[in-house]
Each structure stands twice: as structure tokens, then as C-alpha cells.
Design a protein that fits this description.
By secondary structure, the chain is α/β, with parallel strands linked by helices. It contains 5 helices and 4 strands; from the N terminus they run αβαβααββα. The longest helix is centred in the last third of the chain and has 75 residues.
């Protein structure tokens, strides 16, 4: 067997090994998709409920006195940045970091291993980020906001459009935007401001959890699609290499026969 056929055979084995790896990672991603979508839906439902309460309160005249509804008076921005714990998810992580270039002067608090590696200490896992983590983080951020340590709080996350499409986006949390009053007849005890100030940390916690779970569902979907694409490419490469290998092997056999025939003719 010639050097060319040996090299092609080794190359086929190498690509086949990569194919098995991408297939395994694709199966792992597939097994996580259903649970990730269920968690995303549950978090979205909770966020929607608490968001309705805060929106209702934000339309109250009394709540205009709340420090959470203050006007934006400075340019100090703090951003929670959610990225993945692992790579091999297509452009998932890269797209988040590229989107973040719009805010070069923002103070970054990362969630997810890839974000922590890029921006420093934070929450190392987006997959294992818990409601307790969200609650503790929310209380800390609300206290810092009330102490004027930043003027605006937002979350850079990945919006789950479909299995095929996930897009980076930003959701602004603090300060709470004033709304038109639509709560005629609604009575809050002891008063609107007290209820709002109590509800805001829960609201911030709910939004953080919702964005983390939506980002994780997007990461899993992106990894599944990336592994499917890589698997198709690997199979195509193997097919092309197999054709070249068969041609090279056939050429080597033909050459050997030619040499044998030529040698017997000389005798």
C-alpha cells in the first residue's frame, strides 16, 4: 500500500473519531432540550406574573415616590452577562460577546463559565444557576442601586426564537419604568409604595432567572444544531476521502499488476 493510501486511511479514521464525538455531544444536547424548555416556560410564566404586579404599581401616583422609579440621572451601567459553560455551540457565546461591544464602559457581572473566563469572577455555571442564586444576587443589586452605585441595570442574554434561531438581546431591569395606571379599584395594603419596594427584588430575581433559563435553552439548541452540522460535514468529508482512498488503492493495485506483467515479459 502506498504512502498516499496510508495517509488517506489515517485521515478517514481521524474524521470518523470526530464524527463519533459530535454524535455523542448532539445526543447529550438532545436529552437536555426538553427539560431546558420546560424550565424556560416555567420561569417565563413566573416572571410574567410578577411583572404584571410591578407594572400595575408603577402606574400609581404614590409609587412615583419610590427610589426604584427614579429618573436615570447618570451613565453608570451595570450589566449581567449570561454565556455558556462550554463551547462547541456554534456562535452562541461569540454572539453574546459581540453584542456586548455596544456597551464598552459598562460594569460587567458574568454568569456562565465562558463569561467568567472573559470578564472575571461571577457565577461559574449558567446551567446550575439556582433560584437561591438569583434571589441573593437580586437583593445585592437592589441595595447597590438604592446606594447609587450604578444608574441602570440590564441583562445581556440570548433570546430563544426557535430551535433554529437564537439571538442576543438586552433586557433593562432598573430603574422601573413608569406605566399608565390600569389598576382602578385595586387596593394594596398597607400602601402601594411599600408593596412595590417589597415586590421589586422579587421581580428582579424572576427576570434574572427567566433570562438565565432562556439563555441555557438557547445554548442547548445551538449546540444541538452545531453538532448536527458538524456531523453532516464529517460524513461528507469521510465520503470524499473514501473515494480518494479507493482510487489511490486501485491505482496502487494497477501499478503492481503492470510491474508484474512487465517483469514476466522480460524473462
Amino acid at each position: 500500500m502506498s504512502f498516499d493510501t496510508k495517509a488517506l486511511k489515517n485521515r478517514i479514521k481521524s474524521v470518523d473519531s470526530t464524527l463519533h464525538l459530535t454524535k455523542a455531544m448532539g445526543l447529550v444536547a438532545s436529552s437536555k432540550i426538553r427539560k431546558a424548555n420546560i424550565n424556560m416556560a416555567a420561569a417565563g410564566e413566573y416572571r410574567g406574573s410578577i411583572e404584571n404586579v410591578v407594572s400595575l404599581l408603577a402606574g400609581s401616583r404614590e409609587c412615583a415616590k419610590s427610589p426604584f422609579l427614579r429618573e436615570i440621572s447618570g451613565d453608570k451601567i451595570r450589566l449581567l452577562v449570561i454565556a455558556g459553560d462550554r463551547g462547541l455551540a456554534g456562535g452562541y457565546n461569540v454572539n453574546v460577546f459581540r453584542f456586548l461591544r455596544q456597551f464598552p464602559n459598562a460594569d460587567i457581572l458574568p454568569i456562565g463559565k465562558r463569561a467568567c473566563e472573559r470578564y472575571g469572577e461571577g457565577f461559574l455555571s449558567s446551567e446550575k444557576f439556582s433560584l437561591s442564586d438569583a434571589s441573593n444576587l437580586s437583593k445585592k443589586l437592589c441595595e447597590e442601586f438604592l446606594n447609587n452605585e450604578f444608574d441602570r441595570l440590564g441583562i445581556v442574554y440570548t433570546h430563544y426564537v426557535s430551535m433554529m434561531t437564537q439571538t442576543p438581546d438586552i433586557k433593562w431591569i432598573l430603574p422601573i419604568m413608569r406605566t399608565k395606571s390600569s389598576g382602578i379599584g385595586t387596593v394594596f395594603e398597607p400602601d402601594e409604595v411599600t408593596v412595590l419596594n417589597f415586590a421589586v427584588p422579587e421581580y428582579v430575581s424572576g427576570v434574572i432567572m427567566d433570562c438565565v433559563r432562556e439563555s441555557f435553552a438557547s445554548e442547548v439548541a445551538a449546540r444541538r444544531m452545531a453538532m448536527d452540522s458538524a456531523g453532516k460535514n464529517a460524513r461528507q468529508i469521510i465520503s470524499d476521502l473514501q473515494i480518494k482512498y479507493n482510487r489511490a488503492r486501485q491505482g496502487a493495485i494497477t501499478q503492481e499488476i503492470t510491474e508484474i506483467v512487465a517483469g514476466s515479459g522480460e524473462q
